[in-house]
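Page header: ASSEMBLY MODEL / four components / 741 residues total.
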Amino acid sequence: MSGVAQKDGVRTTGIPSKEELEASPGYPNREALERGPIVVIECVQDIPCNPCEMACPKGAITVGNPITQVPVFYAEKCDGCGSCIPICPGQAIFRVDITYAEDKATVSFPYEFLPMPKKGDLVQGVNRAGEGVCEAEVLRVQRPEKFNHTAVITVTVPKDLAMEVRSIKRLKR
Amino acid sequence: MRIEDHPILGKTERRKRITLKVDGEAVPALEGEAIAAALIASGRRVFRYTAKRRGPRGVFCALGRCTDCMMIVNGQPNVRTCVTPARDGMVIQTQVGRRGGEATHDLETESS
Amino acid sequence: MKNDDLVICRCEEVTQADIKEVINQGVTTMNEVKRLTRAGMGLCQGKTCGRLVAGILSGETNQPLQELKPSTSRAPTRVLPLGTLSKTTQDDD
Amino acid sequence: MGKSEIYVVGGGAAGMAAAIEAARAGARVTVIDENEQPGGQLFKQIHKFFGSGVHRAGTRGVQIGRDLLKEAEEAGVKTRLNTVAYGIYPGKRLGLICGDHTEELASPVIILATGASENALAFPGWTLPGVMGAGATQTLININRVLPGRRALMVGAGNVGLIVTYQLLQAGADVAAIVEGLPYISGYGVHASKVRRAGVPILTSHTVLRAEGDETVERAVIAQMDEKWQPVADTEEVLEVDTICLAVGLSPLAELAWMAGCRFSYLPALGGWVPVHDENMESNLQGIYVAGDLAGIEEASTAMEEGRLAGLSAAEALGYLSAEVAEARKIEVRERLAALRIGSFGDGRAIAKRELLRARCKK
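Prediction written out in full:
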């Protein structure tokens, strides 16, 4: 598309910038990531919303009052269960496990398109801009009734892309 | 094109299949759906031609407000197809101008 | 914007040029534009073009939008076949 | 059952919520709706709503719609469907069209919850079939379950444009791009992020110049715009699309309120001309209440809360609730409303709403 220089950030591009993410209280640091599976909250704007707070059985997420505050994430309380992923109306919560294997990490994300990928499928991992960045293998597709039609898909990706891959390319109908 | 399966809404509910006659051609429809939906599903997009410029029009608001999607239904002109339920055997014609069908196209005397 | 041939009122097929013409003749209100051009007088009663007409009138006459009240709403607010209004019942519940 | 003493015009989110509150308090309520089904736009909203978790955030709009209809039935709300309120006259008389005849009735209390209409954007080719409102697109894909086309251009990156883009993808269509005239995305970042991840570019400071095609849309020509909203030379780009969806804002659908003689204020943050109202949602005319998008463009959650306020106030005015009970309930609702109107996406609306209150107090 026309090469307009766009300023960084979710408000101009629809993609939260690295700075926005790292400044957000919902974003785990490197140390926390290295302990094992953990959720990554990419919610950087003051929108009136708080279901994530109640979704977490460990009390690892707080929004408080007013509900426009961005979620604060207590990484040490999170066991990576991912209960918050399908609940977030903004689909802004992911799970990352960089300890999955020597050279592979897993990324879990909400997904609401058809056809649904199946376990074992080789798909294309995409970054926050929807660009294909790697091959990804589908490890799990969770879609129980209580997720209310939002599937949570887990894929394996090269370890260095664990904080880049946030979805997969939609499969052809 | 119909959306047979949907990630949130699931499969389309089964409804009685009926047939509309649109400008002489048989068009399948589901009983009770908006006429406009059946036409769009069959790939038809031009519902009428305007009075002054004979410009093609189709669905614009889909709420029964804008009146762009009006057609002649069972002989009655100016029927808003986006809010009128389809019934078996309905005869539907592309509307030309304020009340005419194809046949009366050249005979109309309309103010412009 | 040029595009004077641009259709503004979809129902009555009134163009931007038609609207500007009456404004150039001294029209300053939404009601007058409607009466003189028929923009907003069609079957949809200006639901689609009302704001577009206000935008043109505001631009051409330098009146802020908050000075431009929409044209007077009159019954009926929806299309109805002739004859419907003559069959009126009162206070039935 | 006696005659209804509250008529609610419009059975969408605000109107149904108003009717439920008033009927639960004991009032006899009838909702008038021009459609075959009540629920307004809720049944098109297949996404999970934001808001407070204790108030059903995370529930999809379509489910909230189904629940409202059930609650209304349980509360004894009567509905008159396929009925258009075509006029309103002095003495709180409503003119109705049902089928092939009209009817006039007087009502002690009228709650207007007529919703909004979509704004348009005029450009060459915008009358071609294939150009349609984003709301129309939503109706086609989520209610009628048909695709308006295979590949669309979305005009507008507010919440409606972003949500409908996502829903087009869910329905199986492609979206070539979203163009937005403003230099930024006015909708929620999380909605924008969803469509970006799904591969849809969002082009800010861009507009659609024209739609091209013989009998229907075959292409859209877009271009970058400068600060004066003029197209920048040599930035034109042709997109192969068969559908162009307009999501350029909503306006209160206020014909009946104007006809009734309500006083209005012009408030861009609330969508333009809005009838003034007090904290009980009563307009400047005694016994005529307004709620939902008619009382200022917001979203479904605020519309329902405003409806509840109007319903409680109307029931109180008719003597079904004591002042104390009504006030206690209204305070709760107002607190929830206030919570939905804070932060960078809510402050502007909160300020505009306060202006409406002030305008209502002026004589």
